[in-house]
Specification:
It is a single chain. This protein is mostly helical and 266 residues long. Among the domains are: 2-56, no CATH class; 60-131, Serine Threonine Protein Phosphatase 5, Tetratricopeptide repeat (Alpha Horseshoe). The protein contains 12 helices and 5 strands. It has a 3-stranded antiparallel beta sheet with strand order 1-5-4, covered by helices on one side. Helix 2 (61-79) runs parallel beside helix 4 (101-113). It is elongated, with a radius of gyration of 23 Å.
């Protein structure tokens, strides 16, 4: 397996990109090896034209097949809540295929379930070292830093990083817009919510935009957003029974009541 990764996408620390400008090529290779850790034992590294060229030494077909079985079984074990078994199976995968993103990401999910945030972050960072374009790892890191650690700046870094590689991902935009609301960057939040809605009818984007307008005192605009949401998603299977749909209905009733009071007072 071969990878070409821009040096600017190599992460030194959470929210901190690698800057190779002050290092020689040999120094850069040594720094990159240090970042990748024990995985460097099974890969060759070269630097060329601002890119890290990585080639992983392939496992034998028999070992690869065994690792894939362990990965599948690990995902099943995790789904059943048998987390120690799942972790053991994922570790077996990585012992054979250390560059396997699925095993690392699923390990991170298990550690999140166990509330071991440091281990979860470690494995997600490793995923991004192998594949900086991995959207799920970026989003999971953004969510951890935003929801679990209240570090909104680092969370924003990961959402932005994800959108660099996936500029049309409506769910990431919605998460990022919600973060911008928390940071009180309301204009940016509005732009992101609207762009997400234009790409896809994301329920949380409609609800977030309606909340944003309510906060700004634009009650009629907020109600119109929800009316558009109800119309466009009327035939979406399973949505009407979802929590977000119920929250939207509650907000719509609240807005209608407030607008009625406003009308009577005038």
């Amino acid at each position: 397996m071969k990878l070409s990764i821009p040096l600017k996408d190599i992460m030194l620390a959470p929210g901190k990109r690698f800057d190779p400008s002050s290092f020689s090529e040999k120094d850069v290779i040594e720094r990159v090896k240090k970042i990748y850790g024990v995985i460097t034992e099974v890969m060759d590294i070269a630097i060329q034209d601002g890119m890290v060229e990585i080639e992983f030494r392939d496992a034998t077909p028999e070992k690869f097949k065994s690792a894939m079985k362990s990965l599948k079984k690990g995902i099943e074990e995790a789904g059943q809540g048998r987390f120690p078994n799942a972790l053991k199976l994922f570790q077996e995968v990585l012992a054979i295929i250390p560059e396997n993103i699925d095993a690392r990401r699923n390990m991170a999910k298990v550690y999140l379930e166990q509330n071991n945030l440091e281990k979860a972050k470690q494995h997600l960072h490793e995923c991004l070292q192998i594949d900086p374009k991995d959207a799920w790892s970026c989003v999971m890191l953004g969510n951890i830093y935003a929801r679990n650690e209240n570090n909104l700046d680092v969370a924003a870094f990961y959402y932005e990083k994800c959108l660099e590689h996936h500029p049309e991902d409506a769910m990431v935009m919605t998460n990022y817009a919600g973060l911008m609301m928390e940071k009180e960057e309301f204009q940016k939040a509005e732009i992101l919510f609207k762009k997400a809605i234009k790409i896809q009818d994301v329920p949380n984007a409609y609800y977030g935009l309606a909340l944003l307008y309510r906060m700004a005192g634009q009650l009629e605009a907020a109600r119109q957003v929800l009316e558009t949401f109800f119309t466009r998603t009327a035939n979406t299977k399973g949505l009407k029974g979802s929590p977000i749909h119920q929250e939207a209905k509650n907000l719509y009733r609240e807005l209608s009541t407030a607008l009625g009071v406003q009308k009577q007072s005038h």
